[in-house]
Amino acid sequence: MSDPEVAATKGKRGVKPSGKPTLKTIAQMTGLAVTTISRALNNAPELAQETRDRVQKIAAEIGYLPDRAALRLKTGRTNVISLVLEPDEQIYGFGSSIVSGVTEALRDTAYHLVITPLFRGVAPIEPIRHLVRNRMADGVIFSKAESFDERIRYLLDNDVPFVSHGRSAWPDQHPWVDFDNEAYAYGAVKRLAEKGCRRVSVVLPESALTYTDHLRSGAARAAAEAGIAHEFAGDINSFSPTDAIRNYVVKRSRRPDGPDGWVCVSEVSALGVIGGLNEAGLVVGQTAHVVTKQNSPMFAQFQPGAETVHEDFNDAGFQLGSILLRRIAGETEGLTYLKQPVFDWRG
């Protein structure tokens, strides 16, 4: 063997032993020392790539899984990254796109991604406390960051590596990944003004979320510069049921001062707005105009009258995973990523 830590073993090489696979199992099958097997599974760069590939291939074939309890006792690590998701975040592929991106970031590392659900009616801090108290993960990812998010404060105070999808207003620096929603709202309102709209309504997210303030600021600034009226939809938000959004838009559109332009921050809320405009007798793209963020290319296929700005959740997931790995490795500076919107007004 070329590797200096290759050792003879008592077992028969190349034969898959019975029972639960362990490091010793792989050692017996390869003729490598247990310490070499462990380092190969953790992608130790000092080992030859051929050795790492061989060990990892055999581990996958025999169904080897690390004993996380033993690993935690020995090293204090779990090799687990926890992504906290709400059931609603699966709508239009947000959850699956984030998972795909994070998984890609964790490729060729020792880390595994585990989804931690945030159930309805449960305070967002609860799954975070559970993860920290039970030392269930080496790092945490969560979304819907609030201006003064207690999850961020709690994780900072406990010195737990994390990254949030969205920013906060805490003065302490913390890792985050975000989309520039102020720039998006500014560009969207400017576009509606170019289309001839005289009053624009923005369907905002929940008021506690940090990016709600960013959207308000961008929309107000663009409307003032364009010399048009603007408003923020009342009684509903972007997380409201589509029926509620549609009914609101119908009633608001039938008033004499009804908006002729609408800004949405999600495809789901945009569907509710478009449904309401149609029911009110308006034609999207002609007598009323809609700009929305989109993640899925399917939206434009069904609603060609609306104009869209792509928000890449897959890329967001990759950045979340990459930044968290850097934080776990001990980095403390430059752990933020702000994605700028790209305006391509071809509809």
TrEMBL record:
Gene3D superfamilies: 3.40.50.2300, lambda repressor-like DNA-binding domains (1.10.260.40)
Pfam families: LacI (PF00356), Peripla_BP_3 (PF13377)
InterPro entries for the chain: HTH_LacI, LacI/GalR-like_sensor, Lambda_DNA-bd_dom_sf, Peripla_BP_I
Keywords from the named record: DNA-binding, Transcription, Transcription regulation
HTH lacI-type domain location: 21-75
Chain intervals for the UniProt region annotation (Disordered): 1-21
Keyword Transferase: no
Protein name: LacI family transcriptional regulator
Species of origin: Devosia albogilva
Lineage per the UniProt record: Bacteria, Pseudomonadati, Pseudomonadota, Alphaproteobacteria, Hyphomicrobiales
